[in-house]
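tool_call: predict_structure(chain=1)
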Amino acid sequence: MALYEHVFLARQDLSQQQVDALVEQYKGVITANGGSVGRIENWGLKSLTYRVKKNRKAYYTLMDITCPPAALNEMERQMGLSEDVLRFLTIKVEAHEEGASAMMQKREERSERGGFGDRDRGDRGPRSFGDRDRGPRSFGDRDGGDRGPRRPREGVEGGAE
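tool_result:
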């Protein structure tokens, strides 16, 4: 049987008990079709980057699933029909992760790995910021360019009257 990681987003106006009931419903669909559900992680109510079906937040839930493709198709079909599920994503994996997912790890545990600034740049050397070492910029006609000398405008201080 194939291994999958499945994440779904449930509406923000549901209670945590209703989200748990959804998980149990879809878990039942998988087991009825010959599969099994391993780890289930509730990531909680999180803000969405953009509104989805008029919702600004959603309950995120991760499920590790071992099942035949037919069971997965049936669960996804039912999720597509449900008004409580905003989005879902299923990814086929070689092996399920051990321990907590990256979303459940504490910030301290994640920071031990190092941030973006700690990366080794290898052969590339230190970063240079393009226009800092160029010197003054020229803007074509502002420094005299092709147009010739500028004439003062009439009616402006210093201009011809």
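agent: The mean pLDDT is 82. Proceeding to next step.
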